[in-house]
């Protein structure tokens, strides 16, 4: 708790300016002095922070035929790799890995923001175990915490974070999309983003298509050929392709499933600052299978863990820089990227927009419905934002 105390105090005082927080000298207690009507909310925030700061353990079973002492002797390189991939996603390096001999398991301990990357850590341990195993094995993951439950109930990120090819179920669209994306990441060096990561990977919902960033436009032909070969192996038929100025869409069909389209996008595509519309769209899985922010939008105020949490709760912080002419001319981004894409689909807006945009929202016939449904839940944490770079102004 000591490590996060100052930041936590600032966040609470944004919400409750009259609240006083003073820990004891040993940091074993937190004394809260606040108006009575704010105590319950503050205590809920404290409990959530304590839950986040508390360590969580997950056990990954070591397959038969692999020696536990051998695994223990090889943990050094694994720890180094895990530290590197966590640093790439700008998460705090609060984790540990060890072998539990009596349970024939590798134990992963995570704390704080590292919890949002637990699936990544499990995926990397899976890759490591597979390299030592003399045969194929079924991955065994156990743990009682929330993060562990998410890894088990929605294993999609863990499967993409591992270099081990997932098991394929012929004729199943979700399985086919998993195989295509795993191939794009691990065989062609692409990064995947958009609705596939937001809805399919994080929320466990259906995805319409796949958006991926090419390593470079010069590799378009080789990536396209590799993707078509993978799709053919999965029983899909190539149905066409369409070229756009900054992307190339390849389409496939399969028996008994909806068509699948893959957008191969120029990694240097120019977009208006801050280069991402909101927190719910600011997540990608890069060419190393690491979940990271797609753009630096939000800075330290909206972390990767925040973006994932917003997606899970179907909410978003709008990042659009309304002072940039490219965001206000040519198309109506308030209608297209805030109203239609999120509010009309039941997502909750977490930050108050600048006055002009708020007045337009309030003038829309749907505004009262959004209010009644609790979709306009403005968090004081995000009110002091500099729209030029989406940093806090104080």
TrEMBL record:
<protein>
    <submittedName>
        <fullName>Uncharacterized protein</fullName>
    </submittedName>
</protein>
């Amino acid at each position: 708790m000591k490590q996060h105390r100052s930041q936590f105090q600032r966040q609470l005082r944004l919400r409750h300016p009259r609240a006083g927080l003073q820990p004891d000298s040993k940091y074993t207690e937190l004394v809260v002095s606040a108006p009575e009507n704010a105590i319950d909310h503050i205590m809920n925030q404290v409990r959530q922070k304590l839950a986040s700061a508390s360590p969580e353990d997950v056990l990954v079973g070591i397959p038969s035929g692999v020696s536990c002492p051998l695994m223990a002797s090889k943990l050094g390189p694994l720890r180094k790799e895990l530290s590197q991939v966590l640093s790439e996603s700008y998460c705090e390096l609060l984790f540990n890995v060890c072998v539990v001999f009596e349970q024939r398991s590798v134990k992963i301990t995570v704390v704080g923001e590292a919890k949002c990357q637990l699936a990544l850590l499990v995926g990397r341990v899976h890759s490591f175990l597979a390299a030592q195993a003399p045969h194929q094995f079924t991955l065994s993951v156990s743990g009682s915490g929330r993060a562990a439950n998410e890894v088990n109930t929605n294993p999609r990120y863990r499967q993409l974070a591992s270099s081990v090819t997932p098991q394929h179920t012929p004729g199943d669209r979700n399985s086919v999309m998993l195989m295509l994306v795993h191939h794009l990441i691990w065989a062609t060096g692409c990064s995947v983003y958009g609705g596939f990561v937001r809805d399919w990977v994080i929320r466990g919902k259906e995805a319409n298509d796949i958006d991926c960033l090419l390593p470079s436009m010069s590799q378009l032909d080789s990536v396209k050929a590799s993707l078509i070969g993978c799709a053919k192996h999965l029983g899909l038929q190539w149905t066409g392709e369409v070229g756009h100025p900054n992307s190339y869409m390849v389409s496939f069909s399969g028996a008994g499933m909806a068509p699948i389209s893959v957008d191969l996008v120029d990694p240097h595509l120019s977009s208006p600052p801050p280069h991402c519309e909101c927190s719910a769209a600011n997540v990608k899985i890069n060419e190393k299978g690491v979940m990271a922010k797609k753009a630096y939008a939000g800075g330290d105020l909206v972390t990767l863990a925040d973006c994932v949490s917003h997606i899970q709760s179907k909410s978003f912080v709008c990042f659009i820089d309304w002072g940039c002419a490219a965001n206000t001319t040519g198309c109506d981004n308030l209608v297209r990227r805030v109203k239609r894409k999120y509010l009309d689909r039941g997502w909750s807006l977490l930050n108050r927009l600048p006055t002009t945009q708020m007045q337009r929202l309030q003038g829309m016939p749907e505004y009262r419905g959004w209010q009644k449904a609790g979709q306009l839940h403005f968090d004081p944490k995000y009110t002091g934002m500099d729209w030029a770079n989406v940093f806090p102004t104080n």
